[in-house]
């Protein structure tokens, strides 16, 4: 396409062990030059001290916030005005353990219930949700599927695993 | 399998608009009865006030923390002791825009570089990383792919979109 534009979004995280189960994670929004300090922990049940939310709480907020941000941004671009958006997310996983080995994780289903305060038609509301879904970087990653690459430090180099 | 055990992990989020681009998101770890208050915002470039990290910063921390937590938990279960784990994550997306329409998101590649401080063999280190990868709920969701369901409030009911 002659008029196709592409832009890159790159985030880098650096995670360090800082408690029984706590991880402190410095996050750089590389392509915008922004920096954030975040952390995860687990509750006492999982051997942590509960000093920060667990990773899946951050994930739930990330997915919810990502979708809502796109609804708001694309509401302006598509000229489908909204007064308010309220989203209820439900994320369901299962862990599957055979014998005493480490468990394996499986997603069961993720859903977003969206309430728009708007005078827009049902058709326009659907168009807005559809654009937000396709524009949300997290939903796009989940929909397409991504195999995360892993490398282990080995001596002075890195080994793919 | 006679000795297969399954357990459920359910998170619910409730996102509300609370600023120009800020969303406040209450997150319940339903199956554990834990509650967390989180927020996302955007920087001034994207019309926000920068009062909280953007959704993708939470996502980067979530993925990094999820993987690290599983490394630490499975280190004990697999009896592969580690003194430290340090992870550098890189997440790369592209936005693709045709004309002046809303852009569409695509994941380009996600990677984790892992440094273990351990006396374990390369084989055991690989085994630990492999278990953590399969046990990490976020990596499993990305690897398998998940289509998020969407419903729009319509009158007193909900409409699938």
Key attributes of the depicted protein:
42% strand; alpha+beta; homodimer; 3-stranded antiparallel β-sheet
Structure report:
The structure is a homodimer of 161-residue chains. Chain A has helices at 55-77, 122-135, 137-144, and strands at 4-17, 23-29, 34-40, 84-98, 104-117, 149-154, 157-160. Chain A is α+β, with helices and mostly antiparallel strands and 161 residues long. In chain A, the strands form three sheets. Chain A has a three-stranded antiparallel beta sheet, with no helix packed on it. In chain A, helix 1 crosses helix 2. The mean pLDDT of chain A is 96. At the A-B interface, strand 1, strand 2, strand 3, helix 1 and strand 4 of A face strand 1, strand 2, strand 3, helix 1 and strand 4 of B. Strand 1 (4-17) of chain A pairs antiparallel with strand 4 (84-98) of chain B.
Short overview:
The structure is a homodimer of 161-residue chains. By secondary structure, chain A is of the alpha+beta class.
């Amino acid at each position: 396409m002659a008029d196709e534009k592409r832009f890159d979004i790159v985030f880098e995280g650096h995670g360090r062990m800082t408690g029984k189960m706590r991880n402190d994670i410095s996050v750089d929004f590389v392509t915008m030059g922004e920096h954030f300090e975040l952390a995860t922990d687990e509750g006492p049940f999982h051997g942590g001290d509960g000093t920060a939310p667990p990773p899946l709480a951050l994930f739930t907020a990330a997915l919810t916030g990502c979708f809502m941000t796109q609804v708001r941004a694309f509401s302006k671009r598509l000229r489908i005005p909204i007064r308010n958006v309220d989203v209820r997310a439900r994320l369901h996983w299962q862990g599957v353990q055979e014998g005493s080995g480490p468990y394996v994780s499986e997603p069961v289903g993720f859903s977003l219930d969206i309430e728009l305060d708007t005078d827009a038609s049902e058709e326009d509301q659907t168009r807005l949700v559809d654009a937000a879904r396709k524009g949300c970087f997290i939903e796009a990653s989940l929909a397409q599927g991504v195999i995360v690459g892993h490398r282990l430090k080995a001596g002075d180099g890195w080994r793919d695993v």
